[in-house]
From TrEMBL:
InterPro entries: UCP026631, YdbS-like_PH. Residues 72-153, 268-327, 416-490 form the YdbS-like PH domain. Signal peptide: none annotated. Keywords: Membrane, Transmembrane, Transmembrane helix. PANTHER family: UPF0699 TRANSMEMBRANE PROTEIN YDBS, UPF0699 TRANSMEMBRANE PROTEIN YDBT. This is PH domain-containing protein.
Amino acid sequence: MEEKLNSFFQPQRQSKTGIVLLFLYNVGLVVKNLWVFIIFYFVKNKDIELWMIIISVIAVLLILIVSAILQYYHFKYYIDDENDEFVIHQGIINTSVTKIKRENIQEVNISQPFVHRFFNIYKLEIDTPGSSEKEVKISALTKQNAVDLKEYLLTEKQIENDPEQADELIEIKENKEQHPVKISTANILKYGVTANYVQSFFALVSLVIYGFSELSNLLKKVEFKTQLDYDTVESQFLAFSVPMILGLVLIVIIVGIIINAVRTLIKFFNFTITENRQSFSFEYGLFNTRNSIVNKSKVQVINETQNWIQKKLNISYVKFLQIGKNEEQDEKNVAAVPGISNSEKVQLLSAIWEENPTFANFLKPNFRLVLVNTFEWICVPLILVFLIEKDIFINYWFLVLIYIVLVELLIFISFRNLKLFYSERFIRLKSGIWDINHKTFEVEKLQTVKISQYFWQRKTNLGSITFYTSAGRFKIVALDFLKLKKLLNYCIYKIENSKNN
């Protein structure tokens, strides 16, 4: 019963330095939302006296200071041990009370953003299933309070009620923490160079276009005579020779790769994996230090991503999708390990599933899938272009030919990589063109499985199968329908059997 003496069981406030943090946060919000209006106000109104500016700034600062103080004193948190809930009181005018059942807590993340480092305080975020945003954020905690609160909220109830099991947890935790796994800086840098360069290229191009657009709008607003003429820019750009254009594209790609490598290194710097009895703790970050938890029992899907270059470099990217974490809708909050080596990956998977999944059986899609995708991605677009503007086929026939060859090649590569692997305990979906994804999940943790077949697929005995998990659904098409029926029956049997046990 000594835990009852812990201050978490009585309403308490954040660290007092949180007042300064809240003030800075409020200043940031004002500057972020009103900077355009502030600049134009002073540019257009040249007759404003200096004393008016000083009084306005002082008045705004006083309002923000008072707001920060009130926010601090109205924010309280505590643990309701009787109802096993974590409770947050907050709000100045419109007050609110948030209650979270401890059993519903999905993740508790501790981070130390750059500003927090100056005050030696930490931010704690609590996440629950079914929410794309963090349910609760406590912005100013001491490290000890943050760690203690995190450990309590993530401790299983049955272990709390079993002293012997709790002692075992502490002993295992101490042994594990003596030998944490660190992803080397070289591997993180390798991953940064070999991943997301396509996204980085388009992001950089988009940034340039956005920059030109904003610059043009700004010149119009301040009534400069010099404005950007996009028709002139386009004509001058097309006047360059093909090698010059290719050179510019190559430079943009290289710059994008460098930017992505630096961004990845800053984000995942000093990535450390610490294994506990129930979970893994990930700690990383150069300026913004983060600490996230992967609960072993709540892992629904593990997605391993690796391209050809990464395979040669013996690195990959592993994402852990937990209950309520949809990969497509919640990408930012998905726990992941970049640049992990094959040996470290096997060690990680074995710790979660107590074995490294192996597969003796697999299904491949029928070649008709290539024909369907060819019609969808080549025939339909070209027919639409032909109906809208016939001259494009005549004037730019070489671009049409390049499009057909390139898209058909991508379709064929995607078809070759698409496979469904299965064993008694696991199912794995392989897909991708350059970055190959291996999504693996346990049969017993599936919510349900469905197979379907269109009427035109009956003669060819083809169909599709969809796996539903707590972390999303996964579908693969154009497979042997008779074999899908057998796989469906087996999956339903395993799901029902796990519920009965």
